[in-house]
Design a protein that fits this description.
Enolase-like, domain 1; TIM Barrel; 2 domains; 13 helices; 37% helix; globular
Length: 368
């Protein structure tokens, strides 16, 4: 089997509500999505998606994905998509770094491999837990009152996990953490996500002021060096997200004891192939995981769900459903959808969901 054609589509995915990132650093209302259709000489087609969370969140943006695919396509065409390691090496040789641009190609290869084997991707990867995964909400950085309103809106949809954005103002952050904990329901999973929005002194002041609550913070510093510097000075569990980009990052976090949780975002780390190695490092060191897309449609959410299904139930806290934050649905209701605050693994071979091509418009590029 060989890859014969790669078609690239660009689609704007509007958000239902404007979104504010931690620390007030970013407000946006639409995501720039890239969809990849990969065709083979065996008649099997695979789909991939890359949708960064805006363009000021991490070093990734929509046009960069499409430029990266243009660079890598000549090196990928003619390869067997089922041999995902060969495709991975070809992309890494053609374009060092730029992991977010490689993710949709990797995703399309896994989709084809699963279809060829007649198995869902999670089963093909050797996992395939059918335990529904809790969906984590994404509560943008707002006032205490607005935070309550957003959390309740997600509770009304059945959500039992919440990622509450904080950062940038010590007194406000302490107040928000304490207020959310005061209304926290039994069994709810709450992660306070700083998104790198604290300096070291801000991190220590908030984390020490809330030690009695035993809450968990995500990315409480800009870099792994920042997280390491304050590590001995607080007792809060830490999740590392934006600073977890490469396998080397995962190894350092595990070796130096910098975090108890990995926040693995598939588009950021380069796709399923590279993310699976991070999963294994985490499991070998007793580190739990959240697994998410950086953003995007039900395709991106489903990819994350497949990796989550390869993680033992006890070690996987939650996934994300960015689809619930969008006003556009490019798959016509197909694929895993919110059921009582959880996503259920699809049984179809491969990814288990495809877009409606007529909603994607014409390709912006075709490589063959």
């Amino acid at each position: 089997m060989k890859i014969t054609r790669i078609s690239v589509y660009q689609v704007d995915l509007p958000l239902e509500y404007p979104y504010w990132l931690s620390g007030g650093r970013l407000k946006f209302e639409c995501l720039d999505a890239t969809f990849v259709k990969m065709e083979t000489d065996a008649g099997i087609t695979g789909w991939g998606e890359g949708t960064p969370w805006g363009h000021t969140y991490v070093p990734a943006h929509g046009p960069g994905i499409r430029a990266g695919i243009e660079t890598m396509a000549p090196f990928v065409l003619g390869l067997d998509p089922r041999r995902v390691l060969d495709v991975e090496r070809a992309m890494d040789l053609a374009l060092p770094g730029h992991l977010y641009a490689k993710s949709p190609i990797d995703m399309a290869c896994w989709d084809i491999a699963g279809k060829a084997a007649g198995l869902p991707i999670a089963d093909l990867m050797g996992g395939g837990s059918r335990t529904p995964r809790p969906i984590a909400s994404s509560v943008g950085a707002k006032t205490v009152e607005e935070t309550r309103e957003v959390i309740q809106r997600y509770r009304d949809r059945g959500y039992v996990a919440h990622s509450v954005k904080i950062g940038g103002d010590v007194e406000r952050d302490v107040a928000r953490v304490r207020d959310v904990e005061s209304i926290r329901l039994p069994g709810e999973i709450v992660l306070y996500d700083v998104n790198r929005g604290w300096t070291r002194q801000q991190a220590l002041r908030v984390m020490q002021a809330t030690e009695d609550l035993k809450v968990m913070f995500e990315q409480p510093g800009e870099t792994l060096d920042d997280i390491a510097a304050i590590r001995p000075l607080h007792s809060a569990p830490v999740s590392v997200d934006e600073s977890l980009v490469t396998l080397q990052d995962a190894a350092r976090i595990a070796r130096d004891g910098l975090a108890e949780v990995f926040g693995i975002k598939l588009n950021r780390v380069g796709g399923l192939t590279k993310a699976a190695r991070m999963r294994d490092v985490a499991l070998a060191h007793g580190i739990d995981m959240f697994v998410m897309a950086t953003g995007g449609s039900v395709l991106a959410d489903t990819e994350a769900l497949h990796l989550a299904a390869t993680i033992p139930d006890i070690n996987c806290h939650a996934v994300w459903a960015c689809q619930d934050m969008l006003t556009a649905d490019i798959a016509g209701g197909r694929g895993p959808r919110n059921k009582d605050g959880h996503l259920h693994l699809p049984e179809e071979p491969g990814l288990g969901v495809e877009p409606n091509e007529d909603q994607l418009g014409h390709p912006v590029a075709v490589y063959q």
